[in-house]
Amino acid sequence: MPDRLSHRVLWALAGLTAIGIAVRFASLGVQSYHHDEVITVARVIPGSFTEMLGQVKASESNPPLYYVLAWVWAKLFGSGEVGLRSLTALFGAATVPVAFLIGRELASNRAGLVAAALVAVSPMLIWYSQEARSYALLVFFGALSLLFLARALRSGSGRDLGLWALASALALCSHYFAVFAVTIEALWLLVALRSRWRLVLPALLAVGAVGLALLPLILAQINPTHIGWIDHSPLSTRLFETGGSFLMGETGHVIAQPPRERYALIPALLIGIALLLVALRGSSRERGAAVLGLTLGVGVVLLASAAALVGRDYIVERNLLPALIPLLLAAAAGFAASGARRFGIALATVLCAYWLVFDVYVARTPNLQRPDFREVTERLGAPSGPRAIVTWTLAVDGIQLYLDHPSHRQYRGVIPIREIEVISKAVAPRRLPRVPTAFRRVGQLRLERLTLTSYVARSVQRVGVLALRDLRTGFGRNAVIVDGPRGRAAVGR
Fold first, then answer.
1. In order along the chain (493 residues), what is the average pLDDT of each group of 10 residues?
2. What is the pTM of this model?
3. Are residues 332 and 383 both part of a single domain?
4. What Rg value do the Cα atoms of the chain yield, rounded?
5. Are 349 and 267 found together in one domain?
6. What is the 3-state secondary structure (H, E, C) of 364-416?
7. Same-domain pairing of 31 and 83
8. Total domain count, the chain
9. What is d(CA 97, CA 312) in angstroms, rounded to the nearest whole number?
10. Residue span of the structural domain in which 444 resides
């Protein structure tokens, strides 16, 4: 049975929830929208409800639940960074008390409070609580599913099994990767509650029916261009990056930066000690909580990896978020192990303090944030003539969103332009991009992690798009945006 709730525990939980709310909302509008968020804001939710559902089917690779909620939310609070992101921030903050309930159900009040603290300040969970996408919903409903799994394992009641089925179905409607956690939980229920199969089977069938209902949408959404960039790096590399992101948030390729593994060393060490504590000094109940958490967390990664090897490879760190809450639960059981006494709690306090300081550091450090497309477009200003903006591929949508005049992406052909703006990495290349000789450099501006280099010709020149895409920017693949007067007069588009 769960420990009895005291006023002291409730006040501690309220404080941790308040911290979770504060760290998510305080910096909600600091960063500009990133690539996937721009798709949400500019393509999926602006039209009617029917148009939104059509866009989800045609241009997304996720289930519709988040977009339905975001469509309504944007009508009430707007589609600005704070207005729209507040939806996922609420789900992210609501995960904090759910984590407490999971830890309390499986281990103790102390384990629940440690789990709530870890969820409240986890850099990875904060990052995706501030993203206008479906990941915060995936984590929240995945956590609810785990909570009702734990309750069903204890009570065996049809009510808890029904709530597990409902939470699991909502998780599936949030993100397809929830299927891996739900599958493991379903198998656990089948084995642990085999004597109550008459209650278990309807719950499993209900979740299966939701999965089958989503299948036509999944088949309609299959599009290699949505995921073509994923397999540019080996699966092993992406799994390693997932581990770093779980420990320290998105500090690498997601923000077009080299990974910063050094930030993850202290969290990795502390969590490793926590797992040793629960193995050596934990009670049977605490060890059981850690085993369930590790089975779910590691199992999600293994199942997803197996699916990637035999089918389509969708493995990136954010898609593996269903594994994070169970893994944090296992760590919480170790920090709160009854045999560890104050030592475990002291280690958990160090980890939470480290993460909290890092969260503040991210909010104040542009190099650890999403690229600041708002400042980039402000510095670009309005073109005086037909202009080409050369930047890396994933920056195109963000720049176009924040430009206050019409623009379009040019894929091929020859375009008439008089200005070229090259957006490269913060440290400008030693050799300047080889722009056509008719263009001369008129300025270079450092924008925190980016460099903006401007070129102008005396008159309009006809330039090949492929030549512009080959300019040196320091990024993997470039793209070209065309704007300005006569900017749409392209040949061979």
1. 88 98 96 93 93 93 96 96 98 98 97 98 98 98 98 96 98 98 98 95 97 95 66 84 95 82 95 97 97 98 94 90 98 96 96 97 92 93 93 92 93 94 74 79 88 93 93 87 70 39
2. 0.94
3. no
4. 25
5. yes
6. HCHHHCCCCHHHHHHHHCCCCCCEEEEEEHHHHHHHHHHCCCCEEEECCCEEE
7. yes
8. 2
9. 35
10. 373-483
